[in-house]
UniProtKB/TrEMBL annotation:
Name of the protein in question: Penicillin-binding protein
Main location (coarse class): membrane
A Pfam family the protein falls into: Transgly
Family, similarity comment: In the C-terminal section; belongs to the transpeptidase family.
Origin species: Rossellomorea marisflavi
NCBIfam families: PBP_1a_fam (TIGR02074)
Domain called Penicillin-binding protein transpeptidase: residue spans: 327-602
GO CC term, one of those recorded: plasma membrane
SUPFAM superfamilies according to UniProt: beta-lactamase/transpeptidase-like, Lysozyme-like
Phylogenetic placement of the source organism: Bacteria, Bacillati, Bacillota, Bacilli, Bacillales
GO MF terms held by the record: penicillin binding; peptidoglycan glycosyltransferase activity; serine-type D-Ala-D-Ala carboxypeptidase activity
GO BP: cell wall organization; peptidoglycan biosynthetic process; proteolysis; regulation of cell shape
Amino acid sequence: METMVKQLGKSKKYIRLAAAACLAIVVLLLLMLLAVLIYAKVKGPPPLAVPQASLLYGEDGSVIGETNTGEKRYWVDLDDISPYLIEATISVEDKRFYEHYGFDFKRMGGAALADLKAMSKVQGASTISQQYARNLFLSHDKTWKRKISEALYTVRIEMNYSKKEILEGYVNTIYYGHGAYGIQAASQFYFGKDAKDLTLEEAAVLAGVPKAPVYYSPISHPDNAGKRQALILDSMAEDGRITKEEADSAKNHKLAITGTHPNQTANVAPYFQDVVKSVLHSELGIDERTIEMGGLKVYTTLNPDHQKIAEKVVAEQIPQDSDLQLAFVSMDPSSGYVSAMVGGRNYEQSPFNRAVQAIRQPGSTIKPLLYYAALKEGYTPSTRMKSEPTSFTFNDGESTYEPHNYNNQYPNGDITLAQAIALSDNIYAVKTHLFIGQDTLPKTAKEQFGITTDIKKYPSSALGTSGTRVIDMVNAYNMFANGGYKVKPVFITKVVDYSGKTIYEHAPKKEPALDHDLAFVMTHMLTGIFDPKLNGYANVTGTQIIGDATRPYAGKSGTTDTDNWMIGFTPQLTAGVWTGFDKGEEVNLANDKYYAKKIWVNFMEQALKDEPIKSFKPTKNVIGVAVDPQSGKLATKDCPVQRFTYFVKGTEPTDYCQTHLRDGDHGRDHHSPSKKRKPWLDRFRDWIF
């Protein structure tokens, strides 16, 4: 009896010890759970940002390129994902997703029993929250350390984010195979559509891929993918998410697999894209990691049609075996939006962007800037100066400068400013440069036309010997094309971050840069290179392309030993072309010298083919009169050639041309001028030159 009492006492003691041990374990577990909760609360929400491709869009909304690190991922809101995909994912991955707090203990127990019976790992029990934590922050190593970290991240995610945010993050981060990360990239790759447009049968296939992206790929292993699709459809029917009839119908529906990433060939305008990335970093202050992997949506000014035309024209005009290089830029005059850019003949061989990086001699394309300054100093289209071989002496005879006209052709007499521009007379340009002061052109180019390189205070700068950039020169001509308003090259109109927040938007400003009347007078003079009425000792410089032009253009060509330019515009579009050799070799072949003009006119004609033909609209304070191109005076009925020319009111000629009067006609019927002294500007110029 005594022995039984002792044994009973020992049993109670063991029971008490066991109960105490269980209590201690429970308390310890509760303390651990409390510690985990406190840890999760203190640490706060883990960042859910993941690397995403940044997309670049053209002005028509098409994708022109993307940046990524090899992971094709495009974040989409849960509301923009097909409900079938959401239901299929929950059904196959985590049926009690909305009921648990990150861990499905019932499922974990069932998986453990299944594993024990099979004596191997046959079932997984990870919830969507656990998988999301693993995809975001951890490797897939099967170690205790990784499992503990996964659990801690899971708690933090569940405590700080809603189920909708977790589910949205999960389907945007998991790997669907073939380089597609997230449901949007997967939907586009496999079926060529957005995630919101997935059908039931398509959604069931995609929901099955993440378990084993290669094994269940409908491209690599269509049979495996089909079997898993059927399993998922049956599971959805059992869960009441779809009917059995819908499941059976979906199983029998044949899928059309695309198997290509939509943006993998979207490598439009690589030189332009490089500039966009540079602007994002240097001007908008966005770090390079965010540019490459931040899921930005960058809306650019590129017109894909203009870009295609530019590249096509370049390929057609310059022979493939030529070493000649080029730069091309087109812009909208009113906004400065860059619509197309070609920085070289082959981006893969040479990513050096000659449109924005190369500094080349602009030749005579600098003259409109010079002559605009001259108009401000009192010049008019009829201002005459003598053009003949001239030696300019400086520093009391210590140095001389002897410019030459093209092919050493000279009128050896007076010509007007309008004709000097049309024929690109160099003697007239240098005389003008010296007359208005050698510091005027550099100041005008920088302050009014936005030229970013320095124009030297040399006599030869009137002929474009100081280097400039193509982008700057095209932008300068934009100011003539838009009537004198300040613009600068614009590449980006808007930037949106991965969350849909607009972080930058271009705000256009309209402020005057030039005198509007003088800008129009200059523009009208620049139409002269296409007008044979201004032919004189040489033909107008646009002669080679007049036959290709079907609408009014204004522009200027430029030639040096090593560079050939053509820049011109209509009211709707400005474009500029430079051709030459990278190492500055002389351009000797005749055809090589004409490519810039040919590329320019062919681009303009094709780019504007469907646009209305617009002329340049005169400003209110200008007046147009018919003049004799040779004398610059008012034309009479005897003048064989008359050209309608615009002047600022009050500066138009008042004398009539007497050069072509018939014998015995003293001008009584032609309003011959009264005898009066020349204006002081003409007398002073005659005295100097």
